[in-house]
Write a structure and sequence with these properties.
Chain A is α+β, with helices and mostly antiparallel strands and about 70 residues long. Chain A has two helices and five strands. Classes of the chains: A alpha+beta (about 70), B alpha/beta (about 550).
Chain lengths: ~70, ~550
């Protein structure tokens, strides 16, 4: 599923990131890459999405959340 | 000269360590991208000259952002004797990637471990040091002298790559970051109203606090002067110089308490980690103007001073967005414009001073956003921003930063003061000889040459615009200013004049910063914008309102 379709306070594993090279590099800075475990903190129709990754909180545009493929972490 | 470069992720405390070791006053704050270029601090330790270099925070050296390109270039092009890699203990794993890249540079290297918990044992730190194969220094470790000794003695340069996967086997004590306030401060419904409430009410409170202090200081100065006159016989020519100095001091004392409190407020917001939250909250709003929420941070810094704000645009990843943001910043009213606002609002709008101030600031924000929106019609850059953990602002740090900012402001004022005294006469001469006042003929709210020439004089620096009036007043500045605008529509004329000042070129230093960062083309665009936009807007405002009123 896409990151935009996820639920708050649940954990997911990043499957794939379908963005241009430069944006991928920006996300990689924050360790958002294939295989990363993330927790969705805040999801809203207007505001950027907030996720937690390795104890750090990162906010990013909803457009990027469309481009990130994840699977629920059980 | 022994050159020590401090490298690390953003917001890990590099500048704080340099300040601690050298007693310098580099700017520190709790958000990403505070240092945007190398800050160099010279220090002498036991007769040996040392240079501490504070490099912008980076996640890696792969040239993605402007900071990364800058840091990589700096490390490649300069002879560095020692690299100090500052690491935030709360988030070690992510930073190992950069440590590996730094090791490849084959320069002597040390690690500073920041934010370590009190409960951690020295054994754990030793095991971490063995894992990195580099010596580690951590907070609370000996005193500054012995740390610098360790820097000078260190001979370790190790190019061996660390296996990031082995890190988990160290079982380092985990420290959780503080994010509890996000539930309230980033709430989708009341997050923005709360932000506006916090900012506006703090300004109102600070304003009401500063007023009695300014009055008290002025009263004390006047009393001291009267005492001096009655006890010592002063020749008449000395008295007029003392009188001019007194007027200058009085005009400065009137706004210094408010300015100090504004610096305190900015420091508290920066230290607490709220700046990144403001960027988050403002992202949907900024999207209307085709800008990312991140551009709020340079604009916010612009309220203090436009020069560091121009430099802070480096935190934006897209070059076009950087340029647009740099063109927007000069429209934000910096702290140097505040004294002149306070003077005129105090004289012409005594019963609604704060309201007029809020109007002027809101106008400058609105014009800045509109300029941005017109210039940046393209698709906006994606927003990606790390939210730093909250931290309680330390009183000592806040005071130190605010006093340092105020000190810099006053120093700058006095430095330009002498130059500006000559400049006043040159401007007046030019106005008389070349009929420069004709340029301002359409702006009929500027009725006399004193007001018109003030706009040219203000290009030097807005801090000294107040001295311009004080110098010409040669006595009570308030009475002098009250004669500059006549009735009818006196208040409208003053308001249009203040609007012009709010949007006009802030100072020469801002232009220098734009030229340095973006080159001549952007500089010319910026000058044209800053001259044309206030000219047209105030012309329309004055003519429109006067037609409607009459």
């Amino acid at each position: 599923m896409r990151l935009i379709e996820t639920f708050e306070n649940r954990e997911y594993i990043v499957d794939n990131v379908y963005v241009i090279k430069r944006e991928a590099a920006m996300l990689r800075k924050y360790q958002i890459k294939q295989g990363s475990l993330i927790k969705v903190i805040k999801k809203h129709k207007v505001f950027p999405m907030i996720i937690e990754i390795e104890g750090n909180r990162v906010a990013f545009s909803r457009r990027l959340a469309f481009e990130i493929q994840v699977t629920p972490y059980v | 000269m022994y050159k020590i470069a401090f490298v690390g992720n953003p917001n890990v405390g590099k500048s704080t360590w340099i300040n601690y070791l050298s007693g310098s006053n580099l700017k520190v704050a709790n958000y990403l991208g505070v240092s945007v270029e190398a800050s160099i601090v010279d220090y002498t330790h036991k007769g040996k000259a040392i240079q501490f270099v504070d490099l912008p925070g980076v996640y890696d050296l792969h040239h993605v952002s402007a900071e990364e390109t800058y840091t990589k270039q700096y490390l490649d092009e300069n002879k560095i004797d020692l690299i100090v890699n500052v690491i935030d203990y709360r988030d070690v794993k992510r930073q190992l990637h950069l440590t590996n890249q730094l090791k490849q540079l084959n320069v002597k290297m040390m690690i500073i471990l920041n934010f370590i918990p009190e409960t951690i044992s020295t054994k754990k730190i030793e095991s971490f040091s063995n894992y990195l194969k580099l010596p580690i220094i951590y907070s609370g470790f000996n005193n500054r002298e012995s740390i610098i000794d360790l820097f000078l003695r260190n001979k370790v340069s190790n190019t061996q790559i660390i296996n990031e996967r082995d890190f988990d086997q160290l079982h380092l004590h985990k420290v959780h970051k503080e994010y509890a306030f996000d539930e309230v401060l980033l709430h989708p419904l009341y997050g923005i109203p709360l932000m506006l409430f916090i900012l506006i009410s703090s300004v109102a409170i600070l304003y009401s606090l500063s007023q009695p202090i300014a009055d008290g200081l002025n009263y004390a100065l006047q009393m001291g002067y009267d005492q001096l006159l009655s006890s010592v016989h002063i020749p008449i020519y000395v008295e007029s110089i003392v009188m001019l100095c007194l007027t200058l001091f009085q005009s400065m004392l009137g706004f210094i308490p408010f300015l100090f409190f504004i610096f305190v407020l900015l420091s508290i917001i920066e230290e607490s980690g709220y700046v990144a939250r403001i960027a988050y909250l403002m992202d949907p709003f900024m999207s209307i103007f085709h800008l990312s929420g991140k551009s709020v941070i340079p604009l916010f810094i612009g309220f203090g001073c436009n020069v560091p704000a121009i430099m802070a645009t480096r935190m934006l990843d897209n070059k076009k967005e950087r340029i647009v943001c740099a063109l927007m910043i000069p429209f934000i009213s910096c702290s140097a414009k505040l004294p002149i606002f306070l003077l005129f609002t105090g004289v012409f709008f005594p019963e609604m001073e704060l309201l007029v101030l809020l109007f002027l600031y809101s106008l400058s924000i609105l014009v800045s956003l509109l300029v941005g929106s017109v210039l940046n019609r393209a698709h906006k850059e994606v927003f990606v921003l790390e939210l730093p953990s909250y931290q309680f602002p330390v009183f000592r740090v806040i005071m130190k930063k605010s006093i340092h900012e105020l000190e810099g402001f006053i120093k700058k004022v006095f430095f330009v003061l002498l130059l500006s005294i000559i400049f006043v006469f040159v401007i007046q001469f030019l106005f008389q000889q070349f009929h420069l006042s004709l340029l301002f003929a359409p702006l009929s709210f500027m009725e006399n040459d004193i007001v018109r020439s003030s706009t040219i004089y203000g290009l030097l620096s807005k801090e000294n615009l107040l001295f311009y009036y004080a110098q010409l007043a040669q006595g009570d500045i308030d009475t002098f200013v009250s004669t500059l605008f006549s009735n009818p529509l006196q208040r409208l004329k003053v308001l249009c004049y203040l609007m012009y000042i709010a949007m006009n070129i802030p100072c020469i230093m801002t232009l220098v910063a734009i030229k340095k960062e973006f080159g001549k083309k952007v500089l010319v665009t910026s000058i044209v914008l800053m001259l044309v936009v206030p000219y047209i807007l105030t012309f329309i405002a004055y003519q429109g309102f006067s037609l409607w009123y009459l």
